[in-house]
Design a protein that fits this description.
The chain is of the alpha/beta class and 266 residues long. It has twelve helices and eight strands. Strands 1-2-3-4-5-6-7-8 form an eight-stranded parallel β-sheet.
Length: 266
C-alpha cells in the first residue's frame, strides 16, 4: 500500500481562499484546487492508495469544528486518513483528545507558524504527555533561514524529542523547511522521529537530500506532497531524481507510512 503522508483538503466553501492564502504565504502558485476530489484524482494518477489529510485550527475556538471536519473526511473517503488538531490555547484539550481517540483519529497536526504559537510553548508539554500513547504528531518545522526567528525549528523539536522519547513524531519538510543543515545536526538520525519529504524536493540540493536519506533510518522517511501546493506524481519524480533511485526503492519509501499508521499489509 502506497501513502502520501502530508496533504491538505479544505472545506469546499473556503477552499479557494485557503489556496490563495497558501499562494501568498509561500509566494507560489498552488497546483491543486484544495478540494478532496482533485486531491484523490491526483493521488490515483500517481498510484498512491491512501493519503493523510492534515487539519489545523488557526484559533483555539476552531479546534472542535476542525476536528469534526477531520472525522467527516475519514468517514466519507476510504482513501483518506485524517489527522485532527489541537491548540495550546484550547482549554478543553483533554476531553477533545478523548473524543478524537473514540472517533478513530490517529494523529494530530501542529503548525505553530499558522496557529500562532511557538513550539517551545510550555502549554504543549501536558498535551504531549497525555497524547503520546494514542496519537502521532505531525509538526510543521522551519520557515525562516534563522531558526531563532521561527516559531518552529529543529532545535525546538529536538528538545521535545529529548523530553518525550516515546512520542511518535513526524517532522514535516525533512525536519526543517529551509533549515535542513540545522536539522541534519539536531534531529536527523533519531530513532523516535519520522521525516516527511513535503515541500522539500523543490528547494533542497541533491547532495544535502542524499545526506539526510543516508543518515536517517530509511524506514522513517515518509513521502509527502503538501498538496495542493504540489502534485503527487511530480513529487515522486523529483524525489527519484534527487535520490538517484529506481522505482522499486521509491516504492519502499512510499510504503513506509503503513507501519507507523498500523496499516501495513499483512
Amino acid at each position: 500500500m502506497l501513502f502520501d503522508i502530508h496533504a491538505h483538503a479544505f472545506f469546499p466553501k473556503i477552499a479557494s481562499r485557503a489556496v490563495a492564502h497558501l499562494n501568498d504565504a509561500y509566494s507560489l502558485q498552488c497546483i491543486g484546487t484544495g478540494l478532496c476530489d482533485d486531491l484523490l484524482d491526483r493521488e490515483r494518477r500517481a498510484g498512491i492508495d491512501r493519503c493523510v489529510v492534515l487539519c489545523a485550527a488557526t484559533d483555539p475556538h476552531q479546534v472542535s469544528i476542525v476536528n469534526d471536519y477531520a472525522v467527516k473526511l475519514q468517514r466519507e473517503y476510504p482513501e483518506i486518513i485524517a489527522f485532527g488538531t489541537i491548540h495550546p490555547g484550547f482549554s478543553r484539550w483533554e476531553s477533545e483528545l478523548d473524543r478524537l481517540k473514540r472517533l478513530g483519529i490517529r494523529g494530530l497536526k501542529l503548525h505553530p507558524d499558522f496557529q500562532g504559537f511557538w513550539l517551545n510553548d510550555h502549554r504543549l508539554l501536558p498535551i504531549f504527555e497525555a497524547a503520546q500513547n494514542d496519537f502521532i504528531f505531525e509538526i510543521h518545522i522551519g520557515q525562516d533561514d534563522d531558526p531563532a526567528k521561527s516559531p518552529s525549528c529543529p532545535y525546538k523539536l529536538a528538545a521535545i524529542l529529548d523530553n518525550f522519547p516515546k512520542l511518535r513524531c513526524i517532522a514535516a519538510h525533512l525536519g526543517g523547511y529551509h533549515q535542513w543543515e540545522h536539522a541534519l545536526h539536531t534531529v536527523v538520525g533519531r530513532e523516535n522521529l519520522w521525516l516527511d519529504t513535503s515541500s522539500s524536493t523543490m528547494f533542497i540540493g541533491k547532495a544535502l537530500f542524499q545526506k539526510i536519506l543516508r543518515r536517517h533510518p530509511s524506514d522513517h522517511i515518509l513521502f509527502g506532497t503538501d498538496y495542493p501546493l504540489y502534485d503527487p506524481l511530480d513529487e515522486i519524480q523529483r524525489f527519484k531524481r534527487l535520490a538517484d533511485i529506481d522505482d522499486a526503492v521509491m516504492e519502499k519509501y512510499l510504503s513506509n507510512a503503513g507501519m507507523l499508521l498500523e496499516l501495513e499489509e499483512k
